[in-house]
């Protein structure tokens, strides 16, 4: 057969029929053989296109369209399409228009050549020729073609032929999308189409009105008067079985019902009168539609969306939520997914109604589908409240122990936020966080450790219980870095309570000094310990030197070993601690005393996040004792040190290394125990601090951006941009871009992160250095981009003035 095809092609005889070509292509055993068959056939088609008298034009173009469907080039057939569209024969017009829709688009010049042919065919006496022209214009009409032919489409919308009117309505939709201002032309005709009885015409009219209302608020107000007509049409479909010929699985016209419900949702949004007019209808649809079939569920879902989007009655909203609750029990995962997506949107406004389906939502956490599982987690976290915190947290912790790795971080973060907001007691709060750290300590955020340390510090009555529990957790597993860091911190702070062995809240355990030091030394030597974790362990070991009596020499030897550690941070820490043992041993007890209570200045700011954190003052007696030991140093040494970093205008900020538990004390002109520690670096006495002026430059959709002037010189200044998120959902891919006048040089340093946790749990900061040698008026335009709940957002703000000192 292939040989016969080759012979006929080589002889330049008319090419084989379409069926023969398809059979030859399908029988090709290799891709190379298939390309050979297609190339020979395309060569024969080209040759016949060049012939003036070609009786098989439609036959050849049909074969070329099949070649195009296979992905091979067929652009040489574009002009043949133009010629066939101009043919008076319907058979050639049909193939020519089909070829134009497949081979041409609005970007190609050849598409302009068929504009006149389409205009002529729109006035043709044959309805099927008119239909071909309408379909082609709706498929690939450019903006210029739409402007030229819009009057013809408006004329056909008023024709008496229903077949033409439904085609013209869909063509008008394309024209409105291409040229928005032409919508006013079609509005009167679209209104009159609602009086039609033909299903196709009604469907096209509803789609056209929907498009017009979405694009023009004035048109929307005008079409709100059609709500009674739409309600009447919908009632006919629901109650009386308006068009049995369009019945699908027992539901009359589900496609038209869905379209009408979508239009009603647009017309009733933010309008009391329109919403009242459709309340009864929506209740009828919700109660009379069969939910056992897919088409019935489609109509019910659109009904639910309409009820939730308009100003509906409270009872109707409860009915809509109950329908979504039934969807959660459906065997189809797609239906369960869209139900949870819809419930997620309304959980803030109809919280109690959604709470009734809490058990079903929690059961979805066990679903095998990853998408359903993620939606169930988000919805479960949103349903947590003060009344159900214990039961919900039990389910969430159970889910955390077996959830996929990609959901573990989200689950841990949500549990932390819920526990912080609704914890029934401090002990329960601590137990919950420790459970999360034990289960998923490697997937928690960085701020978890300082937040938990602050919580433990503020609950003095639970210090003994917490240190015993963390010590046991440390012995059982040292792979969870966050858990190990908190455990080391607590052992260093409250090691004396651990050694005492008296704890009313838990079983007393006899722990010796050697046992505690062995545990810390295991952390220091483990290959699983991160540098920050070793810093916590070394500091805890050092702190124990003032809380135990018999093993001080062992602690001294452990600290001295790390004086030559390859890790610079750990080495510096060890050298400073060695200096405390040798040169400043009389100060060691005061320097390593228990940390004061850590307070928060504002929500989301912990001791690890704010350098101006308020701390309680040291007892006056200890201040006086240390005052006689510390020599006075010139105050300008601080400025000299800051000058090395680019200017003394920047306030002095304490920046302890990760894992450090040395107390940060208020610095004043009189020496304190904290001042003795500063004396290890040569004696620093800072100048009074003045806060940097801050102004809010952007606040929208829960995202706030502030600008603070850090320092200024003759030729420029340095500003810091700080972003926060007050919404209930996390923000990811957060980026800031800035632009300044051409005469100003801008340098943006690396941001502190690219994600903003929900409810202001953490902030993102970015420093911007502006060089202004010509001293022009400074202006800056900032572009804010981020992703929230799967949707990308972008906005721009202009800063015309900067805060003054």
| Helix residue percentage | 55-70%
Number of strands: 10
Biggest sheet architecture: 5 strands, antiparallel
Lateral arrangement of strands in the main beta sheet: 3-4-5-8-7
State which percent range the strand residues make up: 5-15%
Distance between the termini: 90 Å
Radius of gyration: 38 Å
Unreliable residue runs: 1-13, 602-687
Keywords: Cytoplasmic vesicle, Golgi apparatus, Membrane, Protein transport, Transport
Domain GAE: 690-803
Family: Belongs to the adaptor complexes large subunit family.
GO biological process, one term: vesicle-mediated transport
Task: List its traits.
805 residues, 10 strands, disordered N terminus, Adaptor_Complx_Large_Subunit, 9% strand, 36 helices, transport, 3-stranded antiparallel β-sheet, alpha+beta
Write the layout of secondary structure elements.
Elements: H1 2-10, H2 18-26, H3 31-50, H4 57-69, H5 78-85, H6 90-103, H7 115-122, H8 127-140, H9 143-157, H10 162-178, H11 183-193, H12 199-215, H13 217-223, H14 227-238, E1 247-248, E2 251-252, H15 254-268, H16 272-288, H17 294-309, H18 314-327, H19 333-346, H20 351-355, H21 358-363, H22 370-383, H23 389-402, H24 405-422, H25 426-440, H26 448-458, H27 463-476, H28 481-500, H29 513-525, H30 531-543, H31 552-561, H32 568-582, H33 588-591, H34 620-627, H35 636-643, H36 673-678, E3 694-700, E4 703-713, E5 716-725, E6 731-739, E7 745-748, E8 764-771, E9 780-788, E10 791-799
Antiparallel strand pairs: 1-2, 3-4, 4-5, 5-8, 6-9, 7-8, 9-10
Helix pairs in contact: 1-3, 2-3, 3-4, 4-6, 5-6, 6-8, 7-8, 8-10, 9-10, 9-11, 10-12, 11-12, 12-13, 12-15, 14-15, 14-16, 15-17, 16-17, 16-18, 17-18, 17-19, 18-19, 19-22, 22-24, 23-24, 23-25, 24-25, 26-28, 27-28, 28-29, 28-30, 29-30, 30-32, 31-32
């Amino acid at each position: 057969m292939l040989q016969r095809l080759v012979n006929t092609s080589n002889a330049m005889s008319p090419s084989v029929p379409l069926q023969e070509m398809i059979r030859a292509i399908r029988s090709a055993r290799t891709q190379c053989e298939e390309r050979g068959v297609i190339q020979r056939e395309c060569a024969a088609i080209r040759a016949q296109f060049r012939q003036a008298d070609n009786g098989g034009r439609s036959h050849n173009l049909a074969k070329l369209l099949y070649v195009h469907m296979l992905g091979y080039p067929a652009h040489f057939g574009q002009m043949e399409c133009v010629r066939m569209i101009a043919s008076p024969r319907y058979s050639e017009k049909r193939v020519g228009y089909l070829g134009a829709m497949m081979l041409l688009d609005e970007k190609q010049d050849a598409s302009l050549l068929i504009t006149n042919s389409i205009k002529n065919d729109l006035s043709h006496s044959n309805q099927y020729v008119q239909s071909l022209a309408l379909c082609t214009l709706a498929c690939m009409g450019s903006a210029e073609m739409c402007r030229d032919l819009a009057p013809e489409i408006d004329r056909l919308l008023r024709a008496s032929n229903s077949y033409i009117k439904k085609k013209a309505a869909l063509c008008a939709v394309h024209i409105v999308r291409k040229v928005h201002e032409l919508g006013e032309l079609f509005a009167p005709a679209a209104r009159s189409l609602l009086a039609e009885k033909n299903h196709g015409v009604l469907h096209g009219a509803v789609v056209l009105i929907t498009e017009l209302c979405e694009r023009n608020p004035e048109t929307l107000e005008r079409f709100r008067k059609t709500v009674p007509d739409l309600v009447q049409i919908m009632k006919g479909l629901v109650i009386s079985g308006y068009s049995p010929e369009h019945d699908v699985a027992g539901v009359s016209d589900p496609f038209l019902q869905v379209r009408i419900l979508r239009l009603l949702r647009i017309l009733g949004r933010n309008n009391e009168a329109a919403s009242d007019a459709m309340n009864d209808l929506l209740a009828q649809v919700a109660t009379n539609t069969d939910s056992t079939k897919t088409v019935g569920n489609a109509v019910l879902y659109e009904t639910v969306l309409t009820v939730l989007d308009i100003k509906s009655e409270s009872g109707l909203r409860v009915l809509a939520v109950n329908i979504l609750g039934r969807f959660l029990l459906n065997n189809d995962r797609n239906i369960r997914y869209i139900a949870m997506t819809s419930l997620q949107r309304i959980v803030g406004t109809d919280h109690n109604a959604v709470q009734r389906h809490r058990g079903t939502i929690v059961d979805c956490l066990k679903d095998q589908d990853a998408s359903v599982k993620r939606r169930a987690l988000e919805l479960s976290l949103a349903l947590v409240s003060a009344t159900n915190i214990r039961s919900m947290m039990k389910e969430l912790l159970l889910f955390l122990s077996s959830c996929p790795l990609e959901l573990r971080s989200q689950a841990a973060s949500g549990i932390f936020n819920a526990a912080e907001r609704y914890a029934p007691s401090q002990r329960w709060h601590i137990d919950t966080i420790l459970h999360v750290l034990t289960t998923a300590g490697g997937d928690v955020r960085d701020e978890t450790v300082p937040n938990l340390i602050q919580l433990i510090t503020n609950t003095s009555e639970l210090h003994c219980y917490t240190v015993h529990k963390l010590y046991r957790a440390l012995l059982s597993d040292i792979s969870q870095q966050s858990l190990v860091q908190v455990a080391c911190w607590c052992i260093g702070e409250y090691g004396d309570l651990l050694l005492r062995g008296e704890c009313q809240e838990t079983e007393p355990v006899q722990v010796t000094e050697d046992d505690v030091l062995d545990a810390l030394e295991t952390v220091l030597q483990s290959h699983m310990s991160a540098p920050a974790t070793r810093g916590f362990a070394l500091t805890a070991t050092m702190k124990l030197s003032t809380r135990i009596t018999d093993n001080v020499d062992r602690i001294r030897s452990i600290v001295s070993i790390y004086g030559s550690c390859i890790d610079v941070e750990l080495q510096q820490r060890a050298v400073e601690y060695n200096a405390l043992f040798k040169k400043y041993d009389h100060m060691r007890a005061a320097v390593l005393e228990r940390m004061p209570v850590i307070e928060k200045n504002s929500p989301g700011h912990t001791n690890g996040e704010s350098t101006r954190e308020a701390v309680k003052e040291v007892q006056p007696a200890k201040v006086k004792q240390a005052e006689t030991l510390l020599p006075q140093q010139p105050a300008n040494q601080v400025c000299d040190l800051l000058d090395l970093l680019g200017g003394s205008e920047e306030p002095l900020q304490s920046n302890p290394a990760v894992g450090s538990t040395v107390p940060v004390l208020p610095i004043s002109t009189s020496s304190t125990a904290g001042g003795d520690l500063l004396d290890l670096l040569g004696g620093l006495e800072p100048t009074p601090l003045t806060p940097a002026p801050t102004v809010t430059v952007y606040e929208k959709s829960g995202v706030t951006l502030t600008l603070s002037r850090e320092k200024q010189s003759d030729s420029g200044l340095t500003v810091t941009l700080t972003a926060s998120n007050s919404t209930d959902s996390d923000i990811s891919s957060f980026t800031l871009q800035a632009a300044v006048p051409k005469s100003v040089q801008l340098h943006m340093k690396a941001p502190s992160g690219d994600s903003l946790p929900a409810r202001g749990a953490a902030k993102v900061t970015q420093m911007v250095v502006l060089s202004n040698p010509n001293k022009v008026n400074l202006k800056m335009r900032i572009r804010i981009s981020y992703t929230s709940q799967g949707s990308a957002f972008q906005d721009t703000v202009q800063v015309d003035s900067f805060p003054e000192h």
